[in-house]
Amino acid sequence: MLRGKILGAVGSVLALAAIAAPLSFPHAQAALAAAVSDIAKFMQSYRRPADTPSPSDNPTTPAKVALGKALFFDPRLSGSGAISCASCHNPSLGWQDGMSKGVGDHGGRLGRHTPTILNVAWSEPLFWDGRAATLEDQAKGPMASAAEMNMPHDAVVSEVKSIPGYRSAFAVAFPGQPINIDNVAKAIASYERTVVSGRAPFDEWLDGDEGAVSDSAKRGFVVFNTTAKCASCHSSWRFTDDGFHDIGLPGDDLGRARFMPGITPLEHAFKTPTLRNTALRPPYMHDGSMPTLEAVIDHYDHGFVSRPSLSDQIKPLNLTARDKADLVAFLRTLTSQDEAVTAPPLPR
To answer: Is the pTM of this model over 0.85?
Structure first.
């Protein structure tokens, strides 16, 4: 049954591809049809997983998740008492902050755009430059960063220990274990692993509902996987390879090369973001320089900076206006209608 649904979806794409390819260019049409036929071989990779992973040294439990949610929304874990993890990773803004650059301690402007935490259970290593190997490592970083939450780890632990409600919650979540920064991070990471995008129209179409997405979006899926070469980096069900690539944005931020110097392809290379719910998360790129999906597509089409570290996947695409419109239509089918998240009562 699953194979039939996939082949049915591919069949509709092939039909649209034939329409999309100019009839006056039979060789181009044949090449496009052959390329799209290959989609059947990897279309399974776009299917959502059944379970959410967690590491063996930090298995997810309801008690850890509840504790981690409270810590995630608690501004008392910052030096100013005014910033929480949720200040930058706002569930109402696609788990980002909606700004081109993040804002940290006492309103200071940070150097990069805030990445989403959506689907981070599958997304290691973390940060735009990959400096955190695990989600637990990532959870520790912003708290102690002077530019971000500006609260040393020993101060975080002292603050948590001083609150009776947290002492009780830690005793349930980590029985027989101390309240320390590692367990604070494990709780936050456990909550963040529950931040998973729901089923989107694309998933319904993949399962055989032809009416779930428009013809324009179906053509956009073809363009995404063929002419525009988006799937070279935006692969898997999350539409990311979790790799690092120089996509030709101007600037002197070395990205991944700051931690792995001497490797030319990693200079100006940043982590490929997920495209799930991407329509809800402008602006785009590590520097927040692209205000719309249309601007992002124009960049990949012809707007990139050429330099030795530029990814070999980045080349002029010569997309048509319809190609671009269809791509946007497809990207919007990756948006899920997720249940609203509210801040929990904080322990006293």
So the answer is: yes
